[in-house]
Design goal:
two-stranded antiparallel ribbon, 9 helices
């Protein structure tokens, strides 16, 4: 009799593992994307399981892409889209404000002679030299954006593009060249990634993306940068605050 009852213990352990996984899935759905889960100690006490058993389930959910474990920070629900408000800060500054660690990989640098379209963007004479710099931008070692910037070469004597692997462009410009960045004009387009772009950003080919074009102006009115950035649409969204014109404004008076 005892021998016949022992095999029943195995399905019982499997049921407990399934119940734990369902409880964790419910917690993930309840908290939503990007939320940090309670500590392992708190979760093990709440769910009534050993911490090692909990860790195994957390690792499985991490492999499934549902959780992201960050050393020293905790366990987070994966996939939250980073919200970028419209303010003129660099990618590095933006990520640091969010508590993330920015990094970059410089893919290529070269000096080009600008054509007619690019010369118009940078307010330059066609044929004048500009730096072209391509970077892959990361947050906590996860690829976020693919960036190509063109910088007016004559405004940046002795500029070393390789510094952009470890430094913010805007911080370098303001510190080394005494140029004060004042404003930017941005346009945002919906697009899809080709195979090469998708490979760099670690997503499937033809995944949706946000293409952001930017012209940056210094306090003396000089345009020194034109850039194009491809942001992963699954990890990034832009937030815009708008105001309704006050009653009696010029717009109201002009209305029929």
């Amino acid at each position: 009799m005892d021998k016949a009852e022992k095999p029943a213990d195995k399905p019982d352990r499997a049921q407990k593992r399934d119940m734990l996984k369902q409880n964790l899935l419910g917690l993930i759905q309840q908290n939503g994307e990007g939320v940090r889960l309670p500590s392992e100690r708190e979760l093990s006490e709440r769910l009534g399981v050993a911490r090692e058993t909990l860790r195994r389930s957390l690792r499985e959910l991490e492999k499934d892409g549902l959780l992201q474990r960050k050393q020293g920070a905790g366990t987070f629900v994966s996939g939250q889209a980073l919200v970028k408000q419209f303010q003129l800060i660099s990618f590095s500054e933006d990520m640091r404000e969010r508590g993330l660690t920015p990094s970059s990989e410089v893919l290529s640098t070269r000096i080009v002679k600008v054509g007619a379209k690019l010369a118009q963007k940078l307010k330059m004479v066609p044929g004048a030299p500009a730096y072209e710099i391509r970077r892959l931008r990361f947050a906590n070692d996860e690829p976020m954006a693919l960036e190509t910037v063109f910088l007016v070469k004559d405004a940046l004597p002795d500029f070393d593009p390789s510094l952009l692997a470890t430094h913010s462009l805007y911080e370098l410009i303001e510190r080394n060249y005494n140029l004060h960045i004042k404003s930017a004009t941005q346009q945002i387009h919906a697009t899809v990634l080709n195979e090469d772009e998708a490979d760099l950003l670690d997503v499937a080919p033809f995944s949706p993306a946000l293409l952001v074009e930017r012209q940056v102006t210094t306090s003396n009115g000089q345009i020194f940068e034109y850039g194009k950035s491809l942001y992963r649409a699954d990890r990034y969204r832009f937030e815009v605050s708008v105001l309704r014109p006050a009653a009696g404004s010029d717009n109201d008076e002009a209305a029929p």
